[in-house]
Amino acid sequence: MSLESRSAMRDYYDELGADEWLRLTRDLPGRASFEVHRRFLTRFVRPGARVLEVGAGPGRFTQVLAELGARIVVTDFSPVQLDLNRTYIGGTPAESAVESRELLDVCDPSRFADGEFDVVLAYGGPLSYAFERTDEALLGLLRIARPDGVVVASVMSTLGSWRHLLPGAVGVAAEHGEDANDAVLRTGDLRHVGARHVCQMFRAREVEDLVARCGARVLGASASNWASLGDPAALAELEADPVRWERFLANEVAACAEPGALDGGTHLMFAAR
Ligand SMILES: C[S@@+](CC[C@H](N)C(=O)[O-])C[C@H]1O[C@@H](n2cnc3c(N)ncnc32)[C@H](O)[C@@H]1O
What we know:
The chain is α/β, with parallel strands linked by helices. It has helices at about 1-15, 20, 30-40, 60-65, 80-90, 135-145, 160-165, 165-175, 180-185, 205-215, 230-240, 240-255; strands at about 50-55, 70-75, 100-105, 115-120, 145-155, 220-225, 265-270.
């Protein structure tokens, strides 16, 4: 089941193709989420750091890592996404930071040696696509990070997604029944409703438990959004003024890191050692 689900998601990302490049730019919650992810990552990447990027996709964060002065091993398990990474990053200044591009499933980083990387980055959900192998996957990522290094990841959020995508959840309940909808909310596993895009979503306390089961500790955590999933007209007014938008983003980043806000975004970031 786990292997089947993972390869279904590889097909999904192969078919999604270049649309993934637009995910964090086409609407305001996406643009805010990008900034919150970018600023969170900046806390953990020093110039010269060697970074393994897992599930890199077309390269939004490959570009950020290059700007931070990292050397990057870019990986993804979708050959189409890896090619897109070459297309979007190759020919830009960021390409000189790329050490190699490789196909890699987050569940099997066995080709890498213990402590090879200063930072292992898995943004945008590779750990949400590991399903029954999530513990094994995180253990593998922790193994290849240096003892003083860090694994930085984001996973999909059960409660934040439910709130943000409520009309979709109401439709799911109508189509698959309230029991299936309750099962998704209880477990975070979208396979209960068998959608085309399935993933494992998490509550903040489940991420803490996952990290603890893997013998690591959480160095920092953040939601991807708090106020930036709110009223579209008010947010558009803020974004239209660069000074006000910058102040909003600073407040949004601080809000997203509050313990009471961790479950509030579409994604949940964490850094673990
Ligand atoms: C939503 S995209 C995120 C891309 C990029 N990291 C970002 O945050 O913008 C998820 C990426 O993870 C990749 N992915 C999904 N499951 C994976 C797995 N089991 N192993 C490695 N990569 C995976 C997909 O192919 C896709 O490129």
